[in-house]
Specification:
- The chain is of the alpha/beta class.
- Helices cover 24% and strands 22% of the residues.
- The chain folds into two domains: 4-60, no CATH class; 72-307, TIM Barrel (Alpha-Beta Barrel), CATH 3.20.20.70.
- Strand 11, helix 4 (150-162) and strand 12 form a beta-alpha-beta unit.
């Protein structure tokens, strides 16, 4: 009976040439994430899914760890096609090991024996056909860390863009210049989890702060639409000083970057901190606005955060998109993405018209989906 490791290792392709460098003694260096792992022959990188065999870097291919249809607001993207359906897929593995990960059954599947997510065999064409059957406008690589499975994401996104779909990454942002250049032609939207503004905190999660900040700067420079999320964890990243530094950094990149501050709840291995309260989110949002951010949102506590679920015109402050959780209740933007009252253009990626909303809650694809589980028996 093959193990999950054996199943995954048998579904691989060679890495994209721009994401690998040959070193001595059959070693290679991988550039898919900010670790830039030097990998010895016969070993995987820190992500556990990219590995060196005979001096060649092999990467995941031909499966997904799961698929789900999400409102685009769940990603969350608030300035990109409100109400649209996002066909979301992930693979297995991650380059970090956050103790509060809400997608741990896929992200930690090759580290944690408790995390079991049987992969589904598929091809890019099948995923895109499935997305179209569900009525999706976007195809999103998420659930695991998409940077470490960039080659597969690009293969899917090539098919998606040919079919007229929008493409997106939901990522921890631990990138490199090489991987962002590789992704640049194929990714329209990018959400970065900026988990902290303290390098010591990032090291507890298995990473470093600097590559994430560099990724945010580069994404903005190359014109990929960018939104930032910070999960507010009491006692970990919620001090006024840290939030001020974090939001001032975002303003230094662009005051128009939407910042979502979301509520923590006990999950996976992190069960000590209290759950985030509405007043915690309101305090953080106020810091973000005082730092100069034009678009600040609060998530995970619908109906309890005042106006912080809505998109307002930064000039006249009238509501342009009214929301409750993932539900769009009202949409007033012009076809050009401007305020109909004062004419101010709102930055984002807007549809010419609001086409309604297929679903305001996540759901599994309909039975017409042709994906099937890869047997491990």
């Amino acid at each position: 009976m093959p193990t999950l490791r054996e199943i995954v290792d048998n579904r691989v392709r060679e890495a994209a040439p721009g994401l690998v460098e040959k070193l001595d003694r059959n070693r290679i260096r991988c550039f898919s994430c900010g670790h830039c792992c030097p990998i010895a022959d016969g070993q995987p990188g820190v992500c556990k899914v990219r590995y060196n065999k005979g001096g060649t870097l092999y990467v995941p291919w031909g499966y997904v760890g799961g698929v789900q249809c999400d409102p685009v607001e769940k990603k969350p993207f608030f300035h990109a096609y409100p109400g649209a359906l996002a066909y979301s897929f992930g693979m297995l593995g991650c380059d970090l090991h956050c103790s509060y990960c809400q997608n741990w059954v896929t992200s930690q599947a090759l580290r944690d024996p408790s995390a079991v997510s049987p992969p589904l065999e598929t091809e890019p064409e099948e995923l895109v056909a499935d997305a179209l059957r569900q009525g999706a406008k976007l195809v999103v690589s998420t659930y695991n860390e998409p940077l470490i499975t960039s080659e597969w994401a690009v293969a899917v996104f090539k098919e998606a863009k040919a079919a007229g779909l929008v493409t997106a990454f939901v990522s921890n942002g631990n990138g490199t210049p090489q991987v962002l250049e590789y992704l640049r032609p194929w990714v329209d939207l990018y959400k970065v989890d900026l988990k902290s503004f303290d390098d010591r905190h990032y090291r507890l999660l298995g990473g470093r702060l600097a590559p994430i900040l560099d990724t945010i700067r580069r994404l903005h420079q190359i014109g990929i639409w960018l939104e930032i999320v910070t999960l507010l964890i009491p006692g970990f990243n919620d001090s006024d000083d840290e939030l001020r530094q974090l939001t001032e950094f975002l303003v230094s990149v662009s005051p128009d970057i939407p910042w979502h501050v979301t509520a923590f709840h006990k999950d996976y291995k992190m069960t000590d901190p209290d759950d985030t309260r509405p007043e915690d989110l309101l305090r953080a949002a106020d810091i973000g606005r005082r730092s100069g951010l034009n678009f600040v949102y609060a998530g995970n506590l619908p109906g309890r955060v005042g106006e912080l679920e809505d998109t307002r015109c930064p000039n006249c402050r009238r509501v342009m998109v009214k929301r409750y959780s993932y539900l769009v209740r009202d949409y007033r933007l012009t076809p050009e993405g401007s305020c109909p009252d004062c004419g101010t253009h709102l930055p984002g990626r807007w549809a010419r018209a609001f086409d309604g909303q297929i679903a305001s809650v996540p759901f599994l694809p309909h039975k017409s989906s042709r994906l099937f589980t890869i047997s491990n028996h």
